[in-house]
Amino acid sequence: xxxxxxxxxxxxxxxxxxxxxxxxxxxxxxxxxxxxxxxxxxxxxxxxxxxxxxxxxxxxxxxxxxxxxxxxxxxxxxxxxxxxxxxxxxxxxxxxxxxxxxxxxxxxxxxxxxxxxxxxxxxxxxxxxxxxxxxxxxxxxxxxxxxxxxxxxxxxxxxxxxxxxxxxxxxxxxxxxxxxxxxxxxxxxxxxxxxxxxxxxxxxxxxxxxxxxxxxxxxxxxxxxxxxxxxxxxxxxxxxxxxxxxxxxxxxxxxxxxxxxxxxxxxxxxxxxxxxxxxxxxxxxxxxxxxxxxxxxxxxxxxxxxxxxxxxxxxxxxxxxxxxxxxxxxxxx
Amino acid sequence: xxxxxxxxxxxxxxxxxxxxxxxxxxxxxxxxxxxxxxxxxxxxxxxxxxxxxxxxxxxxxxxxxxxxxxxxxxxxxxxxxxxxxxxxxxxxxxxxxxxxxxxxxxxxxxxxxxxxxxxxxxxxxxxxxxxxxxxxxxxxxxxxxxxxxxxxxxxxxxxxxxxxxxxxxxxxxxxxxxxxxxxxxxxxxxxxxxxxxxxxxxxxxxxxxxxxxxxxxxxxxxxxxxxxxxxxxxxxxxxxxxxxxxxxxxxxxxxxxxxxxxxxxxxxxxxxxxxxxxxxxxxxxxxxxxxxxxxxxxxxxxxxxxxxxxxxxxxxxxxxxxxxxxxxxxxxxxxxxxxxxxxxxxxxxxxxxxxxxxxxxxxxxxxxxxxxxxxxxxxxxxxxxxxxxxxxxxxxxxxxxxxxxxxxxxxxxxxxxxxxxxxxxxxxxxxxxxxxxxxxxxxxxxxxxxxxxxxxxxxx
Amino acid sequence: xxxxxxxxxxxxxxxxxxxxxxxxxxxxxxxxxxxxxxxxxxxxxxxxxxxxxxxxxxxxxxxxxxxxxxxxxxxxxxxxxxxxxxxxxxxxxxxxxxxxxxxxxxxxxxxxxxxxxxxxxxxxxxxxxxxxxxxxxxxxxxxxxxxxxxxxxxxxxxxxxxxxxxxxxxxxxxxxxxxxxxxxxxxxxxxxxxxxxxxxxxxxxxxxxxxxxxxxxxxxxxxxxxxxxxxxxxxxxxxxxxxxxxxxxxxxxxxxxxxxxxxxxxxxxxxxxxxxxxxxxxxxxxxxxxxxxxxxxxxxxxxxxxxxxxxxxxx
Lengths: 333, 460, 315
What we know:
The complex is a heterotrimer.
Chain A: H1 5-12, H2 23-60, H3 64-67, H4 94-100, E1 102-104, E2 112-114, H5 117-150, H6 156-165, H7 171-188, H8 194-220, H9 223-231, H10 236-247, H11 249-265, H12 268-273, H13 282-292, H14 297-317, H15 319-332
Antiparallel strand pairs in A: 1-2
Helix pairs in contact in A: 1-2, 2-14, 4-14, 5-8, 5-11, 5-13, 8-11, 8-15, 9-10, 11-14, 11-15, 13-14
Chain B: H1 2-24, H2 30-34, E1 43-49, H3 63-79, E2 84-90, H4 95-104, E3 112-116, H5 120-125, H6 133-138, H7 147-152, E4 163-175, H8 187-199, E5 203-205, H9 212-215, H10 221-228, H11 245-259, H12 274-279, E6 283-289, H13 290-296, E7 300-301, E8 307-308, H14 314-321, E9 325-328, E10 339-348, H15 356-367, H16 369-380, E11 383-384, H17 387-390, H18 398-408, E12 411-413, H19 422-439, H20 445-458
Parallel strand pairs in B: 1-2, 1-3, 5-6, 10-12
Antiparallel strand pairs in B: 3-10, 4-6, 4-9, 4-10, 4-11, 7-8
Helix pairs in contact in B: 3-16, 10-11, 11-19, 19-20
Chain C: H1 3-42, E1 45-47, E2 54-56, H2 60-67, H3 69-101, H4 107-115, H5 122-133, H6 141-144, H7 147-150, H8 177-202, H9 207-215, H10 220-249, H11 252-257, H12 269-279, H13 283-314
Antiparallel strand pairs in C: 1-2
């Protein structure tokens, strides 16, 4: 197994591996040396983890002749005499221009329209799938988890273990049956919209994990609150809506986010189930760029950046919710 | 609780995105509106191409076909107003398999699909396409079709399953400056030239050597070389036959090209990366399908530094006209005729198509000489198989003349011969040959070839 | 207050759990359970060539699967991938988690930044890593093409170089550079998640316990072995679950990073499943493989559970 030198360095700096032997050294380490070493080590880890994203961003900003340069350079900022000169930087938005494909249109609000299919088809589709599936997942998992947390009935344990066991079945396995199901439904139901089928499929994929996580959250909410409310004349449904749900809001929010990101990033189910490109999502958009502009790496990189940017932004804004749900889900699951 | 603030910020991001998309996106995708049931007696003809009429990227890989559809669909709909509307559902390169799945499961089935004849065995095995014998034989353009192309559309039962429109023989495109004495006719001469080019820092050859796209390589360079040595993939009776003395010699020859460094590493990457070496004249020659070279090899930079940069098929036209690129049949060992795989492109009408009559009207429309020339140049690729189209001025240019001559000088046939399980055969052949010439250049060729053919024949 | 009304109220109240559970039951049943059972059934069938009829063939699909060389190959690739993936991820994640556990002012920032790769999709991650090693143009290509580092006349090229097996061409180890690269890319993607899991567990270990152990003369390794590890063992098991499920089932990255190549050197089971089902349209064989994968997953998870229990008891 190869490790980059950076990661080896990190391992050497592991404070437990170089554990101090005396109290004085311990103190010295804690007060002076350790913060510095830690900062350095963590900084290196961060750079390693973010490097692929940074370099893709730079690639997306390179003009075509820089993309096809041999040997490649990290920054297209060299001139014949210097390896780096700020003035010589040749950045270009050509890659992005090929994704946006702006066309002047006086009728439009901004004076132009975006004709790139990533924007006219794929991103709106993904936005719809992710939002609808995340709402559905949150709603249904909340309802089911409440029951599983508050009631004892026959088959409860079986259900909980069963939905986990389904996680071991590869997703690809299910797609043929779902493909046929979609076709049959379309034949049977007039006015059937495949988009909603896709949403239901996504909800189905997300539900088992979501139910476990939300159940975990509900389990931590004391029952006494509900009992008190019920004595005051509140129905069980009311108790769920007005007492339990608000208290479990962080858990529900994190499930919403997780489902959102998972659906946003999903490719294979969407690709194989939706036969029309007009119904496919952003990941297919990226795949489409692999197929349609195979060797224009700047355009490909730009497509990647555009598609991953929204989830990164969402993540940065809501990171604590993410962290909590992940830990919670992992512990309960 | 800070969680609410987080939720709000999340919601605002989503709303902002929604607003952006709503403002910037065109009011309705053109495809969406035309997909609605047509009114007033018009029936809809649904086609499948791997071109996308909505892709306006001027540098997209399939730009030629994309623009062809964007231009032609409105023209067709105008001409057939009140009778037919043509709407195209774009697909990726997987469309043949998509069609099989769709027909098997009675899903979204198009009325007509652009296909290559190498998809036909798969369609026949899976009962995917309609028998078109009567339609083709009674059509006015039937007498004009090249009998060879009709053979490519004929199933094992003698019925015609596809309408051939264009064909693309596999030939060699080369930079005449790098091969000043013309492209070598024999393999021995080629190796000498290749050594000379290597000393100049050039690659003699670039080709599709990767196993990408489920073994697409089997029908390309590999077959070109094997068949030039007199070899092939089948025994003529539906079984795979790889372990023949001719094939072994061909593999040894291909090995030599790789081990001596006459081709670059990028030939094995896939995703058409190998084309780059020919485009900037790093590699002297490119054995490939005529239509691949004509439609996709642009822009070009010659060894002298002349740039052809319109990024359309015009670049190849110009380079051939200027004599910088020439087209030749493949090399072959002394005394053998160069082999080649002949791609035939055309249409199929799938089983379960809702509007087969419309599809036939559409095919007839494409077969009209003017529309047909347009189709062959932009959507089909290669040379037309109908005489009336071939005589069109568009095909009298240098590049088409040289291409036709080189194709005629080769022994062109379909790479799969009598094999029927194309997806399996493709993958087995491509991975075996790749393994022999690239991964294990010392492995026993005969043993590996036998193992591969047994693997295919086992489940026949 | 009429009796009827009371009863109907009770009726709704009594069945409330059922109504709440119903949507989830329906959806999971339709989207997960039914397709699973369907493919189990499909694994005993075969489509008749020419007519498209389904024929019952018993276990013939499994026999076909187990005797095909593709299957053996991809099983070996999966095993190598899984081992490399699990070991590398676990050790790196443990190291990073130990670093993050030492609270300093910027720790939250570091955690956030380190976590970013996790939200990126497999397909995009694959593309990003592929762009690094495209021959000649990729950023890392000159490094790998250096003959003094990687031998060979021209070094290696991740996307095209084969495995160098001195023993026999069929011997699967060492794996092809592409498979190692795939492992590294996959580790990069999953590392944040596993790090967070381990960090979460480490934070439940009281620092005083560790420090007193250190003062008592326990070396770092001893403290790790006897104090930290037992406490975080459950979480490590959970992390392993995730790694196994993700490693066996994940296909997106193979799809966009190597496409199974060069040759078949990165063809793992999940990729084989895709290619059997959707490029060869051999659904019976694909279904047989998915049954095998499902059993493999359950087996691996049970094994992990057993080992961690046994380990817990030994301490």
